[in-house]
């Protein structure tokens, strides 16, 4: 099992976007964060299945994230 980092971003219109940096070209948008979560999970599964079908390597999850506190 692999675990990919997913970035969720709130859009100016109130919707949500999500993407997995280790899986280039995969991104989704939803009306809610929950919808974006569902779509990115489905998208990751489909993306990996497509790579398998095409005989391409599955990218290793290497991206990490960290919150850094800054006095503002």
UniProtKB/TrEMBL annotation:
InterPro entries xref list: HicB-like, TA_system_antitoxin, TTHA1013/TTHA0281-like
Pfam families xref list: HicB_lk_antitox
Domain of life: Bacteria
Gene3D superfamilies (UniProt xref): 3.30.160.250
Residue span, HicB-like antitoxin of toxin-antitoxin system domain: 4-65
PANTHER family from the UniProt entry: ANTITOXIN HICB, UPF0150 PROTEIN SSL0259
UniProt-recorded name of the protein: Putative RNase H-like HicB family nuclease
Organism listed in the record: Granulicella mallensis
């Amino acid at each position: 099992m692999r675990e990919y980092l997913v970035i969720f971003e709130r859009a100016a219109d109130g919707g949500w976007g999500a993407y997995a940096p280790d899986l280039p070209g995969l991104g989704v948008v939803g009306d809610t964060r929950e919808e974006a979560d569902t779509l990115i999970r489905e998208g990751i599964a489909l993306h990996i299945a497509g790579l398998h079908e095409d005989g391409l390597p599955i990218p290793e999850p290497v991206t990490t994230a960290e919150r850094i506190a800054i006095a503002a």
